[in-house]
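Our consortium's second objective concerns turning raw sequence data into structural hypotheses that experimental partners can test. To show how far this objective has progressed, the report includes one record in full. It was chosen at random from the queue rather than selected for favorable results. The single chain below, 125 residues long, was entered without modification.
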Amino acid sequence: MDHKTKGVVLGLAGVILWFMPLVNLGFMGLDLYQTGTHIGGIGYLLLTASATYAALSWFEQHQLRIIAAGIATAIGLMFLVQFGDRAAWGLYLLIVVSGVSCIVAYCDEQKRKKSLQQAEGSDAL
């Protein structure tokens, strides 16, 4: 699979997971869930980071992709610490997807650097 496609799929997975249950709020025997829309402004930053990752994947801006994925991972981990045992499955998957996104962006950047070094080496000959 092309690195652009991988990046867009990971970014869109982050956007979709924003709509999934992030927090389980048990209230009077009812299971109530909060999604990214219910959390507030920092939740929208999480959505923006995932959407930005998808867009930057298409334009091959790998360093900015690493930053966007790092922001999404940091926000997810902050929510995990804040919610503790009330964290729902959507938050766990969101952290995994954003962590994998960071790794994929880093690997793509390393491939780009390696290809630039090889191109410079072949020009010297």
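The partners drew two points from this record. The chain has five helices and two strands. The chain has one domain: 3-115. Both points have been shared with the crystallography group to help prioritize constructs.
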